[in-house]
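Question (not urgent): is this output format expected?
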Amino acid sequence: MKLLVINTIGLTGVEVLASEMSLIPGIAFLPGQNFIQFDSCLYRPHNYSNLSPEDIFASLSRHQYTKAGRCWAGLTKHMSEEQKRNYDLDKHQMLFVNNLSDRRDIFSCIKAYILTFFEVLGIDISGNEYLGFWGANFVLSYGDLPLFSEEVKVINWSASIDLWLAMISSAMTWNCIEACKFWIINSLFLANSARNSHHYLDINRSSFISNKEEELQRIKDFLNLNYQSEVNYNINELGFIKYNPMLIESIQKSAADIRTVYADNIYFKMAENLAKWQTNFLEDPKHQALLQKYQKFWHSTAHTNFDWVDPIAEEIIELAVPISAEKDTRNFNCNFYHQYSSLCSDNHSEVVFQLEHYLGSLEEEIVIPKMPYFLKIILQYLSNIANNYIKQQHSYVPIRQGNIYQRLSQAEYQDKIVQFGLKEKMLEVEQLIDETEKIGRLLANN
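Got this back:
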């Protein structure tokens, strides 16, 4: 059987596709998000050449957890408690150890892991043609290996830049301008890898959601699958998530806010119009060599930051700008969130915002996406103007009458403030505003 990987860059809602592909006869698809960590590194190549079968299994079956104990990656990521009880980890290891061949390449090891997973559950997949899974950017990690095109078929799950930024920013703090560059670099790398390739198919997230049956047929045609029967086991028992239209709608709304903030930014426009200029960029052998150098560099590092653009990536972006022919256009929202702050994933706990004055009626123009980066900036803005009133004590407009404060007081924002651990900061802001109101009363009575 051939490996089938859904490739993805960061958070893209790829579970939507994985759940549907698990229903296609001919594909035995592994639940969860798998194989993202080797040794102490995430999203880098695995080298099993000198490891025992037991150690290989331990590596393949790694799970990742948040500080609060929530599983965010691993085989059982979406399994219910009952499904976890039905999965025998010890038996899986025993079968894996007994069935692993002398080959220690990543492809053989993953195949053995998937085959023995289904064997543990007593599911016969001998008639299948593909063993499917997803984890991260598998092409970046392994696309340079000689056996890659022979062993793997790739379905790349892509998302437009506004949706991608909305999804990665839904729970973590990222500088979206720098993240645009990361998206461009990785998309260029994948486009270069896909050139003249018969083992690569791109499926766009939005197209799949709006035209699911057509896109599923494209996948079946790509894989040469034309089974008339259905899969011979209950997919619902394995641990796949169900389609959630409310979540899809929420992401769309967030993406619309993201677009309002960044639509005029040069890197957002480069990403949005990538298809118009990427071919010209990739025709230059020097650019191709740089992308290969980027892959080698990535393999040698450990960072997982979407908003840290390394020296090679910066060089690629500099070369791409004139080819894209895009330019920056002034945008008040983008300037508000980025001109006064260098907030990013590396300094997210210490927000510095260098605007001290109340923006008055301009507050009405400021979009507030319900995401950590933007809420942190907004809270610091309110804190700054309160502190400035306290320091100056000579002219005052009530902050609680301002447009931003009134919007932030709404339940939909307060819920997010609590969710993102910003309640303490909100209380600090409220106390500062209380102090300014005392000053306001004194000034009014003088």
